[in-house]
Design a protein that fits this description.
Elements: E1 2-5, E2 10-21, E3 27-33, E4 39-43
Antiparallel strand pairs: 1-2, 2-3, 3-4
Amino acid sequence: MEAYCVKCRSKKEIKNAKAITMKNGKPATQGVCGTCGTKIFRIGSAK
């Protein structure tokens, strides 16, 4: 799964992806950028 990395300014592959639930109850995926190691986040469930 890919997400936008703000530091790299492009879409990058998520490493160590975890399915989480946001405060409003919707699913999201959180992990780290494979290139720079910055935390990245994508709204929606991981498939």
